[in-house]
Amino acid sequence: MGFISAAKILLMLVAIAVVWACRARSYGWNIKRPPFNTWIYLGLLAFIASSLWTQAPNALMWKSINHHSALLLIPLLYFMVGNKKEAYWALQLYALGQLFVIASSWALFGGISVPWQATDLRNSGNRFAIFSSYLDQSIMASVLAAVLWQERITVAHGWHRYGVIGACSAALGCVFFLMPGRTGQLVGIAMISLAVMWLLPSRVRLAALCAPVVFLAALLVFSRPVHDRFEASWTEARAYSQGDASPTSIGFRLEAWRSALMTIREHPIAGTGAGSWGQQYDAIQGAAGRPNEHPTDGNPHQEFLLWGVELGLGGIVLLLGILGSIFQVSLRMEVAPRRATQSILLATVIACLFNCALYDALIGDYLCVTLALCLAAGLKPDAEETPKNDRMADIPARR
């Protein structure tokens, strides 16, 4: 976590230095910014403005704004990457780092101890996890498989292309057979389904809608982690519907979502301000006679509801605007980067439906960096076409 924070600070300082150096030249980077940058800036300004009416203490307010500011990684990295060549170099190095994590997990599965395992082993699900936890790593592995497969022609060259299938299989194997992360498993199924859909002829692509059901059914039969976790989800959801107040994973999520919807209904216009979720949740639990029954850990485990609680219905619109603008510009890309970007976007949406993925300090950083690099790979000009006096070349026309 320390290295990640230091890298983000370094990125910010270098970006400021580059912007300052550009002031003396006619760079035009500020005029030609892509639309998703504008939506991100509006979202962050809304969180800062909510400090005027937030019901949270200053410490929680600034913590929330800091977590949401991870979205700045997208415009910062997009600005710093000058052309497609630089973007693909960064993607290749990024993929190598992720493959190291995947290889380490398989080494643990094979009984080889690795000294860099830094996860909390008090949770048995983390015994094969290297980075953060099984939840984050399973989502990361699914996204890595999608990017490698969709960008296999451009990221890998020569004999390296033969390793793409093996790398994707190793990544998805971690998701479905080593780690019990349900969100990561759903993301993995979605990434495979998208790949199958794009491989099919256009006239039969509607048949790909059956792919998620088929893959899930097969995994429930052949994968013990997938079967156990989905069976536990059903059991916990049924227990919650019957009034069981035990602090289970699904039970807490359902209670948190219900509390978030109640807060949005009471404060639909401006929300309750940045960092206020915990207080709102505790107040609702106390009013229902269940103080500390489901202790909150800072977010409702659903990104859209978190933005709705803190900023009202307008916050949900802002988040949809960020995601929608990224999808819009992806339509102007060539096939490989377009499909890679849309795969990451779908993974982000799924992760946000069951967790506060962008708000989280670990998986949020990963998703933002990966999105930024794929956007740069798809939108930036080729190296030989890069204007010498303009790092922010215009978005290319749709092909």
Notes on the protein architecture:
The protein is globular, with a radius of gyration of 22 Å. 65% of the residues lie in helices and 0% in strands. It contains 17 helices and no strands. It has helices at residues 2-22, 35-49, 58-68, 73-80, 84-109, 134-150, 152-155, 162-178, 182-199, 211-222, 224-241, 249-266, 277-287, 303-311, 313-330, 335-354, 363-379. Helix 4 (73-80) packs parallel to helix 17 (363-379), helix 9 crosses helix 10 and helix 9 (182-199) packs antiparallel against helix 16. It starts with a helix and ends in a 20-residue tail after the last helix. The protein is mainly α and 399 residues long.
Contiguous low-pLDDT stretches (5 residues minimum) are 26-31, 388-399
Number of helices: 17
| SSE ordering | HHHHHHHHHHHHHHHHH
- Beta percentage is under 5%
Mean pLDDT: 84
The helical percent reads 55-70%
Q: Give the C-alpha Rg.
A: 22 Å
What best-fitting shape do the alpha-carbon axes yield?
A: globular
Class by SSE composition: mainly alpha
Distance between the termini: 40 Å
Query: Count the strands?
Result: 0
Largest sheet: none
